[in-house]
Amino acid sequence: MTANTEPPQPPRRDPLLLAWGVTLLVLLGATWPLWTPRELPPRLPAFGVESPPPLEAAALAVIAGALLAALLEGKRWGVGFATAALAALMLGDQLRWQPWAYHALITGAVLWSADRATARGALRAVAIAVYGWSALAKLDAEFAATLGSQLVGVVLPGAGPDMRFALAWLLPAFELAVAVLLAASVWRRGWSPWACGAAVALHAATVLMLSPIGLGHGAGVLLWNAGFALQVVILFRPDRAADPRRPVWRWPLLTLAATALAVAAPALTPLGRWDAWPGWALYAPRLERATLFVRDSAVDRLPATLRRHVGPMVESGVWRPVDLGQWMLEETHAPIYPSNRVAAAMAAELVDSRPLGDGLAVLIEAPAGLLTRERKSRWVDSPEGFRAAARWFNRASTGAAAERLPPPN
Question: Is 271 exposed, middle or buried (0-12, 13-18, 19+ CB in 10 A)?
Fold first, then answer.
């Protein structure tokens, strides 16, 4: 009997793990100012406890090292450490709750806690939920009249307003069709190439419309579209060896909790009990919104980087709008978190750190009607009001009883 002298074969790398890890590293690099210590825009810790910069630097180092261990050596503990460090950084600043970071958090928790086949089944459900909830959040007149019309205009610049409005409804309809095709492909393998092709086409069109030749959105959005499309193709390609074998009730607890959070919790978003981005309400302008205003006499007391984003005087002759979204994008390379409490918290931080007195106000608006586009709103112009509206998951400022008040003269 002769000994087997063939060298051992290295373990096969999980392509889903590679796609997840590389996408996360690339996006952290593209939005690095958001994840490193900064003074402005102010950090907004989730529970009011700000983590010290050395601790955040250590968390970033853990993510980098753990991901390299997971990607290069296939170390499962690397996935767990990277996911835990990402969660710590996100708790340290609500502005970091970017949709791609939240998706990476969910994916990392599933990849670490479940075997390969179970993780594949769970993350398929998550992907279908992302497309489905995102589509439903845009099936309304507000999207069709605003962002949807702008997107159609990129592809059909000669289309009139009525044509753009009508065609804009097709965008979320196609996204919903992708969700249905992906769900069907789980049971009918022959549908998988069509479902994956539709998903890739959707992301390619999105990248085109949001790229510099379109609406010119940030690089993070474009990169996540590419990374998400890659993960979807890996998840839904026919692969009997990786199909889930465990029933859902036998999944690991963390896998089940993370999947439920991504699939079921978004049902609370239309009720105002769950935020837009964790609810996969992506590019959904119908939801709540807030606008910061500054008195003309107080503009010079704003931070220099923010003064560049102060708009012209409104009709009152006293107040000028401040574009917090552009400020955030310029300073952190990432869009602002779409929540009224974030705008109110920024106003509170600015008032506390600058001699602004009564120079700031926030117009807080509830979600628009599905077809009417009407919103209820209220005007908040005191530090106490800012802090009340900025409380953890506070919704009192956007409830149905909110009054419609114009900015004071």
Answer: exposed
Which structure tokens are listed for 310?
A: 């102060």
d(CA 171, CA 298): 42
Residue 236, beta-bridge partner list: none
pLDDT in tens, 46-60: 887 888 999 999 999
Low-confidence ranges of the chain (pLDDT < 70): 1-12, 240-245, 392-409
Give pLDDT, residue 391: 77
Look up the domain containing 233 and give its range: 15-31+98-271
Q: Residue 367: helix, strand or coil by DSSP? A: coil
Would you say the C-alpha torsion 215, 218, 219, 223 has a positive or negative sign? negative
Segments in 156-238 forming alpha helices (H) = 161-168, 170-187, 192-210, 219-236
Does residue 78 form part of some domain? Answer: no
Q: What is the 3-state secondary structure (H, E, C) of 133-157?
A: HHHHCCCCHHHHHCHHHHHHHHHCC
Contact assessment for residue 216 and residue 199, using Cβ atoms and an 8 Å cutoff: no
| Residue 49 falls inside a structural domain | no
Helices and strands in the chain: count of H runs, count of E runs: 17, 4
> How far apart are the C-alpha atoms of 157 and 168, rounded to whole Å?
13
How many domains does the chain contain in total? 2
Tokens representing residue 399 in the block: 């409830």
23/185 Cα distance (integer angstroms): 25
Q: What is the rounded CA–CA span in Å between residue 403 and residue 388?
A: 16
Does residue 376 form part of some domain?
A: yes
pTM of the entire structure?
Answer: 0.92
